[in-house]
Amino acid sequence: MIKDLRKAVHLGAVHIISSSLINKILLFSSSVFLVRLMTKEEYGIWSYALNIMNLFLLLRGFGASSGVLQFVSQSSDSKVKKNYLFLGFILLASGDLLAVLAMQIFGMLKLASIYESNLLLQKISFIPLLLSITDLSSSYLRATFKNRVFSYLSVLGSSSMVIFSVLGLYLFHINGLIVFRYIAVTAVAIIALYLIRDSFDFKIIFLSKKEIIKFLKYSVTVSMTNAMSSILLLIDTFLVGLIIKEGATVASYKTATLIPFALNFLPMSIIQFLYPYIAKNNKDLLYVKNNYYKTLKILGLINLSISISLILTADFLFPLIFSSAYKDSIIIYKVLALGYFFAGTFRIPSGNFIASLGNAKVNFYISMISGSFNIILDIWLIKKYGSMGAAIATVSIFILSGAISNGYLLSKFKKIAQ
C-alpha cells in the first residue's frame, strides 16, 4: 500500500487531489458568500436558473471531453492524439451551440415556473460554452499525463470564478455577478487553449472513418450516460421548484445540497488521477480489479467518517455557515450527508471504472434505469413530503445505481478466475 501511494505521489496524484480540494473549498466558499449576499428569495431564483441551465447541458458538448480523455489516453501516436483533439472541438462546438439556442428559446417563452429565472437563464446561457473549452483542454492535459499543468489550470479556473463572482455580486448585484463571471471564464478559456497550443494540428484529419465513428459513438454514449447520472443531482431541485413554485423553498433545498454534493470532489479527484491509467490498461482485468478494490477500501473508510461527522455536527455547523435563515434545511442536509457515503463509495467509482473499460453502454443502461426511477420517486415523494421527499428519492437512487454498477463489475471480475 505504501509503495502504491509513493508511486501515485510521483505521478501527480497529490497535485490532482490537492487541486480538487482547493477547487471545492473555493467553490463552496463562493456558494456561502452568494447565500449570505442575496436574500433567500433571490438565491432561490438564481439557483433555479442555474439548475435549468445545467439540465440543458446534460448532453454538454456531446461528450467531447470524455471522448478525448478516453481515446487520447489509449493512443501512442502524437498525430492521432492531435486529431482526436480536433474532432473533440468540432463535437463540442456543435453540442454547446445547440444548448445555447435551446436555453434562449426556453427563456424567451418564459417556461420556467419561477418567472424571474427566465431572464437570468438567457443572460448566463453562453457561459457553459466557454467552460467547455477549458474542460476539453483539461481532458487533453489529463490524457497526455500532464497532471501538474491540469491541476494548476483547474485551480486557476475555480479561483477566478469565485473571486469575480463574489466581487461582481457585491459591487453590482446579480447583473454584476453575471458580467464578472463571463470575464473570468473567457480569460481562463484563453489560457487553457494557450497551454495546449502545441497540439493544434487542424490541417488534415488522419483518423479513419472507423476511428471517427468509434470516437463519436463513445462520446455521445458517455454524454447520454452522464446526462442520466446528472439528473440525480439536478432533477430534484427542478421538480421542487416546478411543484412547489417558491423561491425560498428552492433556496432551502439547494443550500442543503451544497456540502454533500461538493464532497463528491474526493472520489472524483481520485478517479481523475486513476482514469487515464485504467483506460490505458483496460485489457488487463486483473490490473483493473486490484486497483478498483484498493480504491473501494480507501474511499469506504474515508467517506464513512465524513458522513458520520456531517450528521453529528449538523445542528451546530449548518446554521453557523449559512445563517439561521436556513435552519429548515438541516434535516434535509442530514439525509443527503448519509447519501454521500453511498454515492462517493459505490456509485461514482464504479461508474468511472466501467467507463474506463470502454463499456459506455453499460453505464448508459444503468443510468437509464436509475434516472427513470429517480423522476418517478421525486414526483411522488415531493408531492407527499415536500423537499424532504426529494432528498429521500436522491439517496435511494444513489444506493440503487451503486448496487447495480458494483454488481456488473463483480461479474466482470469473476471471469478472471475462470
What does this protein structure show overall?
- The protein is mainly α and 418 residues long.
- It has one domain (2-417).
- The chain is built from 15 helices and no strands.
- It has helices spanning 2-11, 13-37, 40-56, 64-74, 78-108, 117-124, 127-143, 147-195, 209-244, 247-262, 265-280, 285-322, 330-356, 360-385, 387-417.
- The chain is globular and about 55 Å long.
- Residues 1-12 have low confidence and may be disordered.
Number of helices: 15
Order of helices and strands: HHHHHHHHHHHHHHH
How far apart, in Å, are the first and last alpha carbons?
27 Å
Computed CA radius of gyration, to the nearest angstrom: 21 Å
Would you count the extended β strands for me?
0
Mean pLDDT: 85
SS strand fraction: under 5%
Q: Name the structural class.
A: mainly alpha
Which keywords apply here?
418 residues; mainly alpha; 15 helices; disordered N terminus
Topology (SSEs and partners):
Layout: H1 2-11, H2 13-37, H3 40-56, H4 64-74, H5 78-108, H6 117-124, H7 127-143, H8 147-195, H9 209-244, H10 247-262, H11 265-280, H12 285-322, H13 330-356, H14 360-385, H15 387-417
Summarize the structure.
This protein has helices at residues 2-11, 13-37, 40-56, 64-74, 78-108, 117-124, 127-143, 147-195, 209-244, 247-262, 265-280, 285-322, 330-356, 360-385, 387-417. The protein is mainly α.
